[in-house]
Amino acid sequence: MNGKYFYFAIAALLGISTALFYHWTFFPLFIIYLSLLYKYKKYTKLQLVIVFCLFIIFFLTSQHAVINNKTILSDSDENFYVEFTENTKVDGDLLQVTALEINHKEKLIIRYKIKSEAEKMALKNTNFYGRICHISGQISDPSIAKNPNAFDYRNYLASKQIFKVIESEGNPLNRCSAVKSTPLTIIKELRFNGIHYLEKHFPPEIAALSATLLFGDRSMFDPEVLMDYQKTGIVHLLAISGLHVSLLIGMVFFLGIRFGATREFMMNFLLALLPIYAILTGASPSVIRAVLMIFLVLLILKWNKQLKMSPIDAISLTLMIYVFFTPLIILDAGFQLSFTVSFAIILSASSLLPRHQQMISTMIVTSVIAQLAALPILLYHFFEVSFISIAANLLYIPLFSFVFLPGLYLLFLFQITFGDTPLIFIDLFMKIITLANGLIGQLAELSFAQFVTGRPNLLTFIIYVIILLTIFLLWEVGLQQKRKQAVILLTFFLFTFHNVWNWIYPFGEVTMIDVGQGDSILIHFPFGNGTYLIDTGGTIPFEEEEWKKHAKPFEVGRDVVVPFLKGKGITKIDKLILTHGDADHTGGALAVLKEIKVKQIIVPDVADPSISEIQIMQEAHKRGSQVVKVASGSQWKIENSLFYVLSPEKRYQGERNSGSIAIMANIGGLNWFFGGDLDQEGEERILKKYPRLKIDVLKAGHHGSKTSSSEIFIHNISPAIAWISVGEKNRYGHPHNEVLTRLSKTRIYRTDQDGAITYRFNQDSGTFSAFLRKIKQ
Hints:
- By secondary structure, the protein is α/β, with parallel strands linked by helices.
- The chain has 5 domains: 4-67, no CATH class; 79-180, CATH 2.40.50; 188-455, no CATH class; 459-503; 505-541 and 549-776, Metallo-beta-lactamase, Chain A (4-Layer Sandwich), CATH 3.60.15.10.
- The protein is built from 28 helices and 24 strands.
- Strands 15-14-13-12-11-10-23-24 form an 8-stranded mixed β-sheet. The chain has a 7-stranded mixed β-sheet with strand order 16-17-18-19-20-21-22.
- Strand 3 and strand 4 form a beta hairpin.
- Helix 8 crosses helix 16, helix 9 (242-258) packs across helix 11 and helix 13 (333-349) runs antiparallel to helix 14 (359-382).
- The longest helix has 30 residues, at 389-418.
- The protein is globular, with a radius of gyration of 29 Å.
- 37% of the residues are buried.
């Protein structure tokens, strides 16, 4: 059966995909796959029956998982008895922990708003394991994605069989009783204690990296540094994988033999150690893959020393065992990347890697193979990859393999053995870590190295896979002159066709992005002829005590607007129009400027710009973006669309909302009114100057506040459709009932109920759609 498990694994994945996704797509693919095995691999009827049976088995197990992947708890429940199953996460004044509801055996997320700094420190240092607690609180569904391509927290938790979030009314440990510890909880307690031991005895930088590499915990890692690792494509080095497991197993086996243990004893010891190690390090997909794969190889060696399991069979069998018990794990990005890259490297090990004898060239080829294999998955989940990643991997893989990983193990062992670590070693590691983090920060700033395409659809994803398979096949058979030219052309096409498609795409769109209580509107013209962004949303800052601040506070520009733009494949904004200086309209601008090239920024011609506007203009100057002040009468044209500024007057002095930029534009055959937070006074000035103004689509002023969208204004402009950008359950009560009454004759779209709202057009006609309505259909 040598090599056959690989084809069995493909059948298993097709069975799961048929159950989870589109039956009409994946079942025909499986039939084609069977015919290919029969024709080219000369599979016998018995072997084809085995493949078919595997397909059916994995289809049925996945179907069962899908059917049962739902909550059995009631929304009216308020009291819960829970046992904690994971380490706590304390971020600012928020405690979050995963727990098992005892009565229904269902996993939950418990959240608690910490009341004081003393309580925070007590909770952070408390071991939650080994107790059952009575918790009272409000049960709710996890948040959902309200914009296209956004991270969907509800689906993410559902793939882990978690469906409800409990907002605890009091400290989760107030009403608890001790229970007898199990071997599993004892191991988890060891992990908890190990992480906190590192935090207590080492400087933050060493503790964070040690917790990541030794225990698979990134909670102490600086969010900005972690983002730099992601941008440069080396974040996989922070995930415990085959490298870490192999190094640990090798060290333990060597030490055991040196201390006089027999090989058979060490084999048994490692088989017992591996499952414990998987739990100690967090049991992430990469950990489970590496541990299970080595476990299978060791087990076969123990049972039958004559039987050899090839690496491709080992990883294929590992995959089948893993997904048989947790089929929904194939939705996890970490699982997809771990197995895809591992398969690519293992399949290339016998044909591509032996051609390169030098260590540097082998590392380069391995890195190229890994990056190409991961490309479609990275683009689907993160919309971009870094061209700098190959160079970064060449530099950082040896650093992690030969310095960080063994060195931090030794530091940890030295500390727990002798109770202290010489300062010379601490200082040395501090200098190396500081230098490494600083360099990775510099590399992450190289914006030209970022390749952004947007999220590929199913057809585009398939095209990526076909091109990559063709490149690997040509590379494998040998790169003679003609094949080398073909590979170069395919690689060029691989990295250009998606952007070329964006340029020739004949449809445009106007989308009101759901940014909560704020405004942000994207206008994207057909054929890539222009991209405008009106406002960027923003989080209104509130002063709070230092201990309450989160390590990485939610920021609309960075966390909503930029991912939305990159998900669309947008890398340049021609005009960033900031209607006025309030934080809920401009707060995300700095993040947009940092991540997206902005050609021109348009601001209102006011006598007294806000602090936010001044900061944005300063940042624009640094990045070479032109700043233009506009007032009533300013205009520009793009294709057949005219943008005409109706307000404010030049050198406007007065209330900021009243001085918002108000624009009338003809887009996709409709007249649009974009007015920021323009109030009724500003609306009256526009009516006096433009009494015959007629509008098809109104962006309601000030999130539906009764201070905007006056009755006389609505009556005069006669909009057929109104868009309201408003936060869900916002503290201001927007949109006001009076405004909704005034707009009763219009069709109303509002982001709190509809999510992102899009008008998709071609020439002078188009259609409206609401994101949440679409996904519910």
